[in-house]
Amino acid sequence: VTTTAAQLNVTKKTLKIVGSLNATNINFGDFITINGSLYDANGKLMNISNIGTLTGTITNSTAGTSSSVTLNYNEKTGTYTLADTANDLVAGTYYITLTGTSVNYALTGSSVMVLTVNKVATSIKGNDTITTTVGNLGSEDATFIELVSNTTTGNEDVSGSWTVIVKDAAGTPLESITVDDGATATIKNTQITKITSNGVYSIDVTFTPTNENYVPSTTTVNLIVKNSNVITVNETIKDFVIGTTGNTTYIKVTSPSVEN
Question: Which residue has the higher pLDDT, 136 or 231?
Fold first, then answer.
């Protein structure tokens, strides 16, 4: 009996990694889900769980920096998934690829997926138009205008700096008002000191978020200032006994009309 040794070569089967994103355009702060599937040369989905994990590489196209995430096998879908990546990707464009290694399979990396993370617009909630008098400005330390920053995603906790300029009807700046940094701004009566006559004025407000992933915003508060209505007593008040009838005491007062 003659025995001949035979050599059996088993080559790795080539599989293609196909990646997908649940969205390709998101806002800063949103989550993104990355999926990876394995297909053979005939385009058949291969539900293979013993490969281990797939690696996703996320590269910022501007900075050139990269970070890696791990995709785990999902038995229900037969795919590899990373649900809810960290939501701290700064605004910009990202290139995402999936790779993997296996003992029995030759894995071909995925095509490049492009993800765009947009800056979030902000807005300022506050008064549109305020009507007041000259005497009310600068005379009382009370809240006059209250402003709150907001975003298109409903976030009212975005902090930043405020620029407040008081202007006359011609648009000429009269004064700048200092406001503390934060998500809200409060302007008091006593801070408006350069308006000394009636007329139409405006208060231009700019909010600049500390976080560069939010877009600055502006608003204008229209201010209509009227003269104070002064009541003048023209005669000396005479004695008047409460409860009596037929008293002929009169008080003569005048009140000029207020000009706008």
Answer: 136
d(CA 172, CA 157): 33
Per DSSP, what are the bridge partners of residue 38?
17
Rounded CA separation 255/177 (Å): 34
- Name beta bridge partners: 207: 162, 217
Contact 16, 105 (CB under 8 A): no
Among candidate residues 152, 159, 172, 175, the one with its CA nearest the CA of residue 207:
159
Tens digits of residue pLDDT in 8-59: 777 888 999 999 999 999 999 898 899 999 999 999 998 887 777 899 999 9
**Residue 209 contacts residue 159 (beta carbons within 8 Å):** yes
* 183 close to 225: Cβ distance less than 8 angstroms: no
Q: How many whole angstroms separate alpha carbon 30 and alpha carbon 87? A: 6
